[in-house]
Every structure is written in C-alpha cells, then in structure tokens.
Specification:
This protein is mostly helical. The protein is built from four helices and two strands. It has one domain.
Length: about 80
Amino acid sequence: MNYVTDTHSLVWYFTDDQHLSKKALKSFESTVKEGQIIVPAVVLAEILFIARGDLRVRHQGCLCGWRRHQEERGSAP
C-alpha cells in the first residue's frame, strides 16, 4: 500500500522521535516490503527551511509566529 506523508511524520520517522504514532510507524515500515511513501514537494521544502534555519520549529508554532519571524528577517510578504 502507498502512503502520503507530512513533514512531522517524516522527520519523526527519520529521527526516531516518540511523537510518531505506532500506526504511522507501522505504515512506514510496511512499505519496506511493498508500497511507497509519497513525499509531497511542500514537505521537502519545509524540511529544507528547517535544516537551513529559516523556519523555527516550536511546539506552539503557528502561522502568526512564522509571519513574525519573516518580519524580523525583513522578508515578510
């Protein structure tokens, strides 16, 4: 079976984070034998932003925090 992942699930899977649910872990692991994990382009972009430090990951983050961060950098839309 094929699955589509989001950013959190993919990062948590590769970092062995306990936030990843058992059901999600089972889905990732089941594709080893058959199926694929589909990674949308936006997920790759978000991971790139996180890795570059352009996007701070916070538990209580929201779009408001992202906008504030962009304004601080002088790059708000």
